[in-house]
What does this fold into?
Amino acid sequence: MSTLGVGDVLLAQPLFHEIRKSSHFERIYILARRGPPASLVRRLGIADIVYEYTSGTKQRLRHAMGIARWIRAQHFVTVLTTTGMNPWYTGIMAMVSGAGTRIGERRGRMHWIWTDAVPVEEHSHVVIRNRNLGRALGVEPGLIPRIAIEPHERERAEAMIPKADKIVAIIPGSNIELAHKRWPVQHFRDLVRALIDRQIHPIILGGPDEERLGAEISAGFPMDRITDVVGKSDLGTAAAILSFCTLAVGNDGMLLHFAAAVGTRTIALFGPSDPAVYRPMGNDHVVLQSPLSCVPCYHLDTRGCINPRCMTILSPQVVINKTISMVGG
It folds into this structure.
């Protein structure tokens, strides 16, 4: 099995969880990207063994050959590749494995590799696509990813969150390579100002590479009225912080899915990506997207779109109104 980023791991959690519960296999291996994705696999307890690989290495061929040798040496009975993976890469690795059962999506020209090629429903959610892969394996995964908060994570979160009746998580980041998915900083500042005016406490979350973003949004606001924890928490603590929040508002990305996974309602701000495929799962979540006819386009950076208006024209007042209505401020 193979996974991409942290969000991909979480969206595959229902699938892995159900496979783990089944009596089909003695041992489950997951191939995961080194760093936070592999750490989350371990944190979720969904594998017996995690094999970490490095993406973007300069010696790609040599690195891929090393992975192939490891896969071949395990003598796998079954190989399943989760949705979203490169069909050429995973298809070749599946063939190298020698597994008698190979399950993957029917995409591109590599579909012949799979003994069970699962049809892809157009515009279907990633979780649903992973569920369909699970069905080919004989399991029935659920549709809501979940994260259980550990006691030590809850304690760390309690030391970081404000003493406030209503806390709204602000999630302004996204993968820096996917900058077109970001709502503008000034729009987030307008939202923060509206929350503070209504005695609602904003808390800004993000990764270590987004600290500047958090500082730009919180600049000039009274320090006792806003909390910036960008880059100050690990994944488990971030999930715990989100569990204390009344609502989470942010760009399409990992932390919004974390919020949904701990039972916190969300407002997801979408631009070039498709909410039908990537929205937080569940009934307590709202998607806001600009009405442009060109979305979704999946042009996530300037190489594909030279006039990325879809996030800038998403009105701050629309987001403020929806946020206030959901928080009850």
User: Anything to note?
Assistant: The two ends are 45 Å apart (CA to CA). The first strand starts at residue 29 and ends at 33. The chain has a mean pLDDT of 91. The chain has 13 helices and eleven strands.
